Amino acid sequence: MKTYPHNVKTIKSENRALIFNYLRRKPTSRAEISKGSGMSKSAVTMITNELIHDGQIVETNSAPSARGRKSILLDIVADYRVAAGISLHRKHIYVCIVDLKSRILAYASHKTSDWNNPYRLMDDAYREICGFLEELNIPKERCLGIGVSAPGPLDYVSGVMMSSPEFELFHNVDVRSYLQNKSGMPVMLDNNAVLLAMQQSLSNQYPYKNFIFVVVSNGIGSAVINNGTVYRGFRGFAGELGHTSIHANGIPCSCGNAGCLEKYISIQALQEKFGIPSYEKVVDDAYMGDHEANRILEYIADEFSCALGNAINLFDPDGVIIYGQFSYRPEKLFALLQEKVNRRSVITRTHPVEISYSRMQPDEASASVCSAIINRYFEQKL
Amino acid sequence: MKTYPHNVKTIKSENRALIFNYLRRKPTSRAEISKGSGMSKSAVTMITNELIHDGQIVETNSAPSARGRKSILLDIVADYRVAAGISLHRKHIYVCIVDLKSRILAYASHKTSDWNNPYRLMDDAYREICGFLEELNIPKERCLGIGVSAPGPLDYVSGVMMSSPEFELFHNVDVRSYLQNKSGMPVMLDNNAVLLAMQQSLSNQYPYKNFIFVVVSNGIGSAVINNGTVYRGFRGFAGELGHTSIHANGIPCSCGNAGCLEKYISIQALQEKFGIPSYEKVVDDAYMGDHEANRILEYIADEFSCALGNAINLFDPDGVIIYGQFSYRPEKLFALLQEKVNRRSVITRTHPVEISYSRMQPDEASASVCSAIINRYFEQKL
DNA sequence: TCAAATTTATGGTATAATAGAACTAATAGA
DNA sequence: TCTATTAGTTCTATTATACCATAAATTTGA
Known about the structure:
The structure is a homodimer. Chain A is an alpha/beta fold. The first copy, chain A, contains 14 helices and 16 strands.
């Protein structure tokens, strides 16, 4: 249900966003954009020339063509703007400056146990951002804003972090207001699974149009990308895969539910159940043919496939991408997962649903903290 | 990721759709539409006058106002167009003609066991539709198309029914092509849960913006409405709640999975487990204070709340609406469900998620078979 | 009863954006 | 060098809206 009207002015900004959606994936010619998007050539010319004039895009080399005049590729000007990012993790905090192509221009990572004062933490991070911008000689006006990522429950609409077991001391910290007032820049708070999924969606590593992105670390979070946009639900809390129950009367979880996936396949859970030293060790042993190690992988695949199968049955994706822990030598586990998911999910009877591991590089993942800010720029809802 | 461009012409059709979205809910004045939608008064006047001229809407009585000129309410002309519907159930087939306000103008229901020849079935249904149109003196041109609903797995994009345990003999029946060729009208095939959810969404019975609609009959299906539109997933198979597993190693299901919700709370399952004569009897007994009957309700709520909690954790809705079987004297069961879901779902820690039973009337539900066709008309993507 | 205030609806004009056609530019191959 | 082909630009007609002024209808209160 669309509640905003369209007028002559919105046309242009929507079409501009459409053009950016091509360019940010790869350099593209005017002709190709016109054909792909359905816009007239003249409209594409008009908009792109304006963007060139502004310095937002440039003409790069020309692309070979079978016959006729070569096309001139247009490309994003990566450093037209930058974005700052603050990534909160359980044991460290990561601060970075990122360009429009998600390349990291500056970063720092600090260990921290000082969760007592989230405001001081934000102060420090903001000071660091200012320092980076100065070093890079980038005036504040060229910084689009600050993206903040956190693993815990948060309200992305209001920009407030809620209390969680992991971040005990973050009781309704209004990250957005605080940082926005301090910096005078737009601030966007988001869940790290959502941000990573956005980044993955853009990376073209997998061709999925509708995928579930699962982040396995201490907890298990997820996000769903539906035709290129994040499925948010009512308040943006969608995707709590880790607290999905696979045993209605199973192991009690701190969340109040019983049988939560996290209680079965998180590293902590595996350590408790099997006494393993590390997941990597188990995988290495499994490849060496160790029976017990293979049994553990089988167990993980069994439990995980149940939760994944459920999510697939509900979301009907064309792919599932798993990020984090299980990406270590993933072939063996993923073969098992695929097989078991195929058995469990009725959706896979109608079309294949590929279970893949994320090939995102560490720096891409780090840069993802800015992806909401950068997306906002490219949408240019002027 | 929008892939169609906007031009001067699309503006108008989108704004017209915006106006219809107000009018189909309730009669509304031009002024109110203008304020609510953000469109200028002149644009609203322009479009509505055109629609009046076409006979698509009319001015009705004027609405009282505190001060100043009374506003003139505009209303849909319900019989400007009609839609035909064919609803396939396991043991009967339902055929109807519906107006733009989802009022049933003609209908018939037939018992049938003749699933041997789905084409003859469609032939019969289409003949009946033609008969109805003749009786009602409605020329074929005024019929928007034929909506077809079925409970089994189907591809709404291509309009093909797939084989399922319930409809064994429907092996890839191309309902759309067959009926479209026969009738020369647009044909839309859809899942009955989706159609009911669309109808519910329009009915304004509940204020939810993002709800999960669950249909409990022989199987358990569901559909998710996200900001007024159906969440479809990759190929429209989303919402297989009934084959969501709540016991990873539970009762084997014909779908290949184990522990599917259907295997626990479907009437058949309850009869097998508890030997009950009918669900209604159990409920009546429970209200009379019967201990065993209350135990059964508790059991249902336990199992159901697990699947619902999972779906809520994944979709983050503001409400869940349950339709069908459990709507019989629902207060007792729904109180239990609400309590258990609140315990199981982490989402309910952040905002309330109401578990309600659908108050849709039987005729509304029957008319829902046409809701995709009618929605298509009101969207008027000209 | 009548004027002021208020709200609804309409009409005219300026503006913005696109489509489409005609045109120029560049390129490969015969 | 000529031709077919594709890329990109420019100009004009079209279309839809916003904005402003105005008209119409209604209530309030003097």
